[in-house]
Amino acid sequence: MDMRLDQHEQARLEKARELGRSEVRPVGMEADRLGRPIPVDDPYFERCIARGEGRTRWRPANAPKRSGGRYSTVTHLLVAEELAYWDRGVGVANPGPGLPEGNVLAQGTEEQKERFLSPFVRPDRPRWASFAMTEPGAGSDAAAIRTTARKDGDEWVLNGAKCFIGNASRADWILVQATLDPTQGRAAQRAFFVERGTPGLGPFKIEPKMGLKAYESTSFPLADCRIPAENILGGEKKRERRGGFKSAMRTFNAQRPVIAANAVGIGRAALDAALQFGREHDRIAHDRIRDRIEHMTRKLRMARLLCLRAGWLADQQRPNIAEASMSKAVAAGVAQEATALGMEILGAAAIRGDQLVEKLYRDVKAMDIVEGTGQIQRLIIARKLVELPR
User: Fold this and answer.
1) Alpha helix locations (H) across the chain?
2) How far apart are CA 220 and CA 158, in angstroms?
3) 82 within domain boundaries
């Protein structure tokens, strides 16, 4: 594998590092201290837009090509790792089309791309979009969702409840996964654009979390929520196809190496902070502590290589389902070990509530849960290795 970065890609990584140091960590630490998501009107988000962030990959047919070309998946993963090193919660809070963008690009009609993504081409203000899959009774088993979609004339009527959805209350629109027939399982699932202010959407409840407090995790109901027929992803003509669930799963598959990279970044941050504290307080003179530091450094580098391997395969347009799941399953566990080691090195100082390592210890648990738990990743890997059908 050749994963060397060119000059342009290296510059992007350096820019992410400087941004993380000067902007991302300070705003993330403040959100954690205050115990709430970064407010919509926070000047940090305005600065994001001024820097050209929060934009979509989609371009209108007549738009000029962007300079600089497209970054590789490997570069994207390295940047994701670097930003998570400074604060993973802030990365999720950042404005932009977010998680549903890939689904819209892959499955949306040209009219839907124009309508829902064009505001993100050159956003006039911080804007968000959101993807709603998880439900109170359907987390790891995404095929078990019970939010229903019923056709009524020229509209679809959605009923159900979603939970732990990122940035939903501030989103211009939410791509809601629903089922046309709960008895048909995965085959009956489709996704629907639900725009802000639609009657029957909400109220929104921002859930308290032990970590990653910079972004909002939102629960909300859909009660006789009526949306126009043109808001079904891919259009009415694709209504009978069995692509809704697979499209959602492709989004999660693409995100798993990103979550793995995030975990590696958090683990690195914990180890670096613990090392600095240990040197300042003479706590790394013991052989046992040095042995643990070596052990965790080695495992973090192993996790990073698994992550980059999954990204490299994607860049080569080769299948990477098993590798993507391996990277997430391994990196999440290793990062949890690294933060636990950091707590051990800090000792009693770790529980005062004013140490970065303690924050990372709380943040990192989500890396084992989001985009499919570690248990689910191991099931995917095992099924792939013995060539069982998905």
Assistant:
1) 7-19, 25-34, 43-50, 73-93, 101-107, 110-117, 244-280, 287-315, 321-346, 356-363, 374-385
2) 13
3) no
Select from 189, 221, 241 the last residue of a domain.
Answer: 241
Tokens describing residue 180: 């046309």
Identify the pLDDT of residue 64: 63
d(CA 46, CA 56): 17
3-state secondary structure of 196: coil
CB atoms within 10 A of CB 305: 16
> What b/e readout covers 103-132, taking b as 16+ CB neighbours within 10 angstroms?
bbeebbbeebbebbbebbeebeebbbbbbb
Which of 45-49, 241-245, 286-290, 312-316 is predicted least confidently?
A: 241-245
> pLDDT per residue over 20-37, tens digit each?
999 999 999 999 999 999
Q: d(Cα 89, Cα 84) in Å, to the nearest integer? A: 8
The pTM of this model reads: 0.89
Q: What are phi and psi of 233, to 5 degrees?
A: -60, 125
74: in domain: no
Biggest CA-to-CA distance, the chain: 74
Split into its structural domains, the chain has a count of 2
82, 101, 135, 371: the catalytic one is: 371
Residue 18 appears among annotated catalytic residues: no
Please tell me whether residues 30 and 108 are part of one structural domain: yes
> Please, is 373 exposed, middle or buried when counting C-beta atoms within 10 Å of its C-beta (0-12, 13-18, 19+)?
middle
Please determine, for residue 264, whether its predicted confidence score (pLDDT) is greater than 70.
yes
> Helices 25-34 and 73-93 meet at what angle, rounded to 10?
40
Is the torsion defined by CA of 154, 160, 164, 168 positive or negative?
positive
**Tens digit of pLDDT for each residue in 175-210?**
999 999 988 878 899 999 999 999 999 999 999 999
Taking only the tens place, the pLDDT of each residue in 84-122 is 999 999 999 999 999 999 999 999 999 999 999 999 999
What is the reported pLDDT for 252?
53
* pLDDT band at residue 351 under the 50/70/90 scheme: confident
